[in-house]
Amino acid sequence: MIRSNTNASTWNWTPRVPRVTTRFQTLFLCFLGILVLQGESVSAQEYISNVQGRLCPEGTNVTGQFSVTGDAARLAEPDMGLVSFRVFATEDTLAGATSRGNLVSNDVMIALMDLAFLNDSDMTTTAFLVQPTYEDAKNTVVSNYSYSQSITVRSESGNVSDVIDAVVGAAGNNVEIAGTQFYVSDGLVRRIQNGLREEAVGHAATTAATLAKSIGAALGAVTYITDSFYTPYRPYAAMASNDVGISAEKTDAVVSPGTQRVEGSISLTYEICA
Q1: Residue from 162, 185, 175, 152 nearest 248 by CA
Q2: What is the tens place of the pLDDT at every residue in 212-257?
Q3: Parallel, antiparallel, or unpaired: how do β-strands 34-37 and 123-134 relate?
Q4: Which residue, 106, 154, 248, 250, shows the most beta carbons closer than 10 Å to its own?
């Protein structure tokens, strides 16, 4: 039986084949690239062929079960980034503020679409507001009207600086860069996790072999696996928060995506033979 816990989703699987060729063969063909067992590195296929047709070494019987856990982790450089910015304008009338703000916003959108790596789907308006500014505490005398539109742009992490420069260049003094956020895409996370699973299983198998050898026993079939891998935090479009302090006078932005930790564990339950 396999239990997988990945991003709070849990599934169970019980093969419907005879016991001698069930759990061990199907399980390790699916999940293992390399299995470290009894001090030697062998492939999953080689190990399966060695134990095919038996649950315990000749002359021994299953006396119980025990579980071991293997962990694995890797630092990954984020491959995606978000840039959040706010376009603003102030005019004496509501129509004037709206018109001025829309002109600036359109200029920004045109500049962004000129970037070959962006599509319409990469840009999201997260807030839009046109409101009066009052002179008195009772909010009865209007001094002017302000326009504000907040936008988030998604791009590959290596293109974040180009996005910032395009926005600042198009909006002039009518923009604030609110922040940047970097994350590891789902596809990259899955590729990393697949490699980490093999590593974690190898660690667990090595521990199992060491424990069995220390008590003079042998390992039987694997009867249960628990897979616990989680996706690193991924920000929502409206949550970019790392202030990069870019103003209209500063271009050629330099940003660094840093690294994020991808980790997880595999637990194996073995039959023990003596």
Answers
A1: 175
A2: 999 999 999 999 999 998 877 766 544 444 444 444 454 567 788 8
A3: unpaired
A4: 154
Q: Are strands 40-43 and 142-156 parallel, antiparallel or unpaired?
A: unpaired
| Helix, strand, coil distribution of the chain in percent, nearest 5 | 35, 40, 30
Residues whose CB is less than 8 angstroms from the CB of residue 62 and which lie 6 or more positions away in sequence, other chains included: 55, 56, 220, 271, 272, 273
Query: 């002109």: which residue's tokens?
Result: 103
Query: What is the rounded distance in angstroms from the CA atom of residue 9 to the CA atom of residue 142?
Result: 54
Hey, what domains does the chain have and what are their CATH numbers?
2-77+203-231+264-273 (no CATH), 80-183 (3.30.70.2970)
Q: Determine which helix (DSSP H) or strand (DSSP E) holds 160, and give its type and residue range.
A: helix 160-171
Nearest 5°: the CA angle 238, 243, 246 is 110
Distance CA 100, CA 92 (A): 11
* Three-class SS state of 85: strand
